Amino acid sequence: MDIQTWTWILVGLTFSLYIGIAIWSKASSTGDFYVAGKGVHPIANGLATAADWMSAASFISMAGIISFSGYDGSVYLMGWTGGYVLLALLLAPYLRKFGKFTVPDFIGDRYYSNKARVVAVFCALIVSFTYVAGQMQGVGIVFSRFLEVNITTGVIIGMVIVLFYAVLGGMKGITYTQVAQYCVLIFAFMVPAIFISIQMTGNPIPQLGFGAAGSDGVYLLDKLDGLHRDLGFHEYTSGSKSKIDVFAITAALMLGTAGLPHVIVRFFTVKKVSDARKSAGWALLFIAVLYTTAPAIALFARTNLIETVSNQNYADMPEWFTKWETTGLINFNDKNGDGVIQYVADANKNELEVNRDIMVLANPEIANLPNWVIALVAAGGLAAALSTAAGLLLVISSSVSHDIIKKIINPNISDKGELLAARLSAVVGVCIAGYFGINPPGFVAAVVALAFGLAAASFFPAIVLGIFNKKMNRAGAVTGMVIGILLMLFYMLKFKFGVFDGGKSAVASLKSDWWFGISPEGFGVVAMIVNFIVSITISKFTTPPPIEVQQLVDNIRNPSGAGVATH
Predict the structure, then answer these.
(1) Matching CATH number, 3-232+241-561, of 3.40.50.150, 3.40.109.10, 3.40.640.10, 1.20.1730.10
(2) pLDDT of 375-389, one tens digit each?
(3) Quick one: angle between helices 444-468 and 74-86, nearest 10?
(4) Of 169, 180, 225, the residue nearest 52 (C-alpha)
(5) Number of H helices, E strands in the chain
(6) Whole-angstrom distance, CA of residue 334 vs CA of residue 243
């Protein structure tokens, strides 16, 4: 069977599985909708957390970034994995013991203020919509290539599917759907990696193939360094970013991970505080499978791409090249009219533009793997994008229905009315997410990296200080969050989208203009430091929190509650 037939079959089967789980686990109460009734097993929660966290950026885009950036791309590996460890050890158990439904719920109660709750909702919506834009874009890319529909149609199909199981099942449906999605995405990620590792090095373990020699006896990393030198690119194993920018991006991704509302809420779904710790450990194990494989896939994909396209006649290019050309994600511009593809670092001579988001998806085709393997990768990419999109939609809907409507506008709303409001909020949220998926502000991982910066700038200080500093008051926390996220938004709009530079594009914003030499993807750490300074300074000169709030902070840090949660 051809690739498209295999794709329809595998995508149809996986989508049927997701919909079936949503129907089976339909939410019947707000407790089910927001936190799955707080009854999820730690292993299941670990699987769901891994799927929720490993988005389209992890599955589709991260290996693509590493393929093109080489050593510089390692910031994504270090930042995202390190950030999860930080979240698991530093925040998750304490937030579970606090026992609320959402991150704005924690901030609203900890800082005894609806103003703090509203600011937290605003931050959650900004972070979530920025993040979900990357997921819907990933869905569109997969559909446009493998089902041969345009990106807009692909995004709309993804919107309908994720809306169905997110609105129907809430967190309960999403949790068990994400367990299935993890199994699909990790199988889809590993199978082609194993195939290509055997093909290129004879070693079935991609992590070992990464450091092995090819059939010609030359180590793959040395071979790729040589190919890069010949084409004028910087060596694959050397970096071009400044040390300050590498540090800033890594730190922003780490601290942003620890402040992501859709990941944090997963730790509210287990029975006990100790289960939160266990599920964090399981999730880290499941995440490590993909993250230790990504560098190998990046190496294999980059090597195969260069050897396949560089100095080759355009008329002789294989079918995969033509198929990806129709999506607009790879383009050949024959500048000298000789019909030969000149793929070089010199922008004036380079004739090939490759969107880095296609590398993982195109890799099995470039390596000429069986059609069912190529289709499997498509199903895995969709699973990764939809699992995270669903978690983000839940954050959006719960922020509106629980934190705004229930806690502020209408405290007497019935459970049934709140559940209806949550579902309607999800419908509006997925429509906005679809718009950003159709009109993306950048490639997937770059968009997602900005979401991490926003989370680091806004939530991380408020959560850390809320847990570990009982004298932190609402004036300090609210002011810090507002200044942190506004500073990050300003920097992002100025240097990523040229909003304050007369409409200049991101390319036109020179690196020399960056503050402290830090890119927009890394500036979240600067905004976070400003948030900490502002929060602590203001709290020193304003009224301390009430005694009962300070006692509450003491209680959530007390290890004696490691058994059953207090709320």
Answers:
(1) 1.20.1730.10
(2) 898 888 888 777 777
(3) 30
(4) 180
(5) 23, 2
(6) 37
> In which residue are the tokens 């709290």 written?
539
Q: What is the pLDDT of residues 133-170, one digit of tens each?
A: 777 777 777 777 777 777 788 888 878 877 776 666 66
Q: What is the largest CA-CA distance in the chain?
A: 78
In the chain, which residues have pLDDT < 70?
25-38, 99-101, 165-171, 440-447, 500-512, 559-567
C-alpha to C-alpha distance for 409 and 425, rounded to whole angstroms: 15
- Rounded CA gap, 2 and 139, in Å? 21
Interatomic CA distance for residues 74 and 242, integer angstroms:
13
Q: Which two tokens stand for residue 180?
A: 């299935």
Helices 114-146 and 103-110, axial angle in degrees (round to 10): 170
Residue 460 CA to residue 255 CA, distance in Å, equals 7
Instruction: Tell me the Cα Rg of the chain.
Output: 23
Q: What is the 3-state secondary structure (H, E, C) of 505-517?
A: CCCCCCHHHCHHH
- List the domain boundaries for the chain: 3-232+241-561
